[in-house]
Amino acid sequence: MTPLLLQQSYSIVAAVSPYLFYFTVYSFLGWVLEGSYNLYSTGTFRKEGFLKGPFKPMYGCAPLLLLAAHEIRLSFPLFLLLALIIPSAVEFVSGWLLKGIFRRQWWDYSGMPFQLQGHICLKFSLYWWGLSLLCFYGLQPLVNFLYLYLERVWILVLPIALLLFTADLLWTFHTRRRGLQLMQLMQVLEPPELGEG
């Protein structure tokens, strides 16, 4: 590898490194938030998510999109509107994709007023809005400080973190697709009910 190519590779890693750190931190905090909400509402911390590990990528995506919106210097009222729209859009697209790919809905707001296909509802969109503003103005400065403090270590850990996240994603995708295929096979092999046919 030539020194110029090595320098360019390092520049790319250095440019995306903080965003991958933010994504990882917020995905983990989303897992903690959902577990805590589940503990409060059902009495158990563990709530099955799409991934097997302690990450909820949906919670990592929304803050990154809000950071991107903030970096293009939008007006404050427009940013407030995006803080409402972005998390709900991420939640809707995530729910729609998961249901489309795996034929399963991990959350369902269909019993709530002002919902859309059970993927989003007004009540939780308002929760996400408040949480987004709290995250952006309260938590993000601390997460950024943490990144600056841990930057040298994070650069070394980043390849391992990416490998673990990718392995979790691939393993989860494989096992969930296999589970879906087994479920479809069971439906085909299931004997007809008495009185049918």
Main beta-sheet annotation: 2 strands, antiparallel
* Integer average pLDDT: 85
What portion of residues belong to β-strands? under 5%
Sequence stretches where pLDDT stays below 50 over 5 or more residues: none
Q: What's the shape?
A: globular
Helix content: over 70%
Spell out the helices and strands N to C: HHHEEH
Counted by DSSP, the helix tally is: 4
Read across the widest sheet, the strand sequence of neighbours is 1-2
Q: Please, could you describe this protein's structure?
A:
By secondary structure, the chain is mainly alpha-helical. The chain is about 75% helix and about 0% strand. It has four helices and two strands, in the order αααββα. Strands 1-2 form a two-stranded antiparallel ribbon. It is globular and about 70 Å long.
How would you summarize this macromolecular structure in one to three sentences?
76% of the residues lie in helices and 2% in strands. A hairpin with a 3-residue loop joins strand 1 (115-116) and strand 2. The radius of gyration is 20 Å and the shape is globular.
Name its key features.
mainly alpha, globular, single chain, 197 residues, two-stranded antiparallel ribbon
Helix-strand blueprint:
Elements: H1 3-42, H2 57-71, H3 76-102, E1 115-116, E2 120-121, H4 122-189
Antiparallel strand pairs: 1-2
Helix pairs in contact: 1-2, 1-4, 2-3, 3-4
